[in-house]
User: Fold this.
Amino acid sequence: MKRATVLGTGSCLPKRKLTNFDLEKMVETSDEWITTRTGIRTRRISGPGEENYLLAAKAARRALRNAEVKARDLDLVLVATMTPHMIMPSCACFVQAEIGAGNAFAYDLNAACSGYLYGLDLADKYIGSRPGMKILLIGSETLSARVNWQDRNTCILFGDGAGACVLSGGSRGHGVLDAHLGSDGRLWNLLYMNSPKSCNPALEQSSDDCCSIQMSGRDVFKHAVRAMENSVQELLRRNTLTMDDVALMIPHQANVRILHKLMERLGVAAEKVYINVDKYGNTSAASIPIALDEVHRQGRIKGGDLLLFCSFGGGFTWGSMLMHW
Ligand SMILES: CC(C)(COP(=O)(O)OP(=O)(O)OC[C@H]1O[C@@H](n2cnc3c(N)ncnc32)[C@H](O)[C@@H]1OP(=O)(O)O)[C@@H](O)C(=O)NCCC(=O)NCCS
Assistant:
């Protein structure tokens, strides 16, 4: 069976950088606190002309160019996002129109920060049944619009951006090898974001905080480390592989301390793990594809390398995936 293989990658970050020093002027915090607790130094914030679908479309055009695939040859445009600029139509439909992918069907999926991995798994299933299919998978977020900029517990963590890849059935020994995905909806209230008007304001009390990200940081931290560790261990075990077989691990970029704990538990050396959370903060579903585009363009991965992705996010959702480049 053919597996989903990456033909090309692209990414797009908004122009505006918001540093920890900028945040010092907005909430009671310090560069020192943010850097030591999270590893984040700057994040990108979208402005006019950088709406979610426009960042996504720019990342998509770059991935198509890199893959040498024409937009009209795409069969599916799939966008992983939890911050579409409209609920309906989907972000994917806007991207389809923007890039001219007239022969594709298009839809969004929301698995919070795990959206991109869930999307890769889905794309792999489509390609398993129709190997010639060309799929554009994008992770794109404008979280800055959904953060309470007076809440120092959350506003320091998140950023905006988009990453994309073009996928199709590859030759033997390339592409997705296996994925392990999990969810636990019982823990939803440890990390969540209400929809605007998800409730009737006449019946429910509304507040300014109503639609912004809410989080129990310490609980999320513990669950994130445990879930990603268990997922990766299970994935390696059932494929009779160890971390020694992995050329590069590309985790969801939430917090450098979560990543260091995870690396310690998995016994993986720092040079085998790609980290860019210092530059972009947590960009949710966009973080893995942005990181993948960076390592690809830096020439850090070569044909046949075994890559390991893992993620954790609201829901809770989590997962890991092995892919031969
Ligand atoms: C959010 C996080 C960085 C907070 O770090 P922490 O060590 O758990 O800190 P706590 O929440 O216990 O807060 C410790 C103190 O720092 C304060 N604090 C919180 N945010 C602060 C900030 N931005 N600047 C300064 N102080 C801050 C708290 O108010 C608290 O003060 P207190 O002791 O007087 O009550 C950490 O819990 C974390 O990274 N969690 C995971 C978040 C995440 O990745 N979410 C997305 C997953 S996809």
Q: What stands out?
A: The mean pLDDT is 95. Residues 29, 33-34, 37-38, 113, 152-153, 156-157, 215, 217-218, 220-221, 224, 254-255, 258, 282, 312-313 surround coenzyme A (CB under 6 Å). The chain has two domains: 4-172, 176-324.
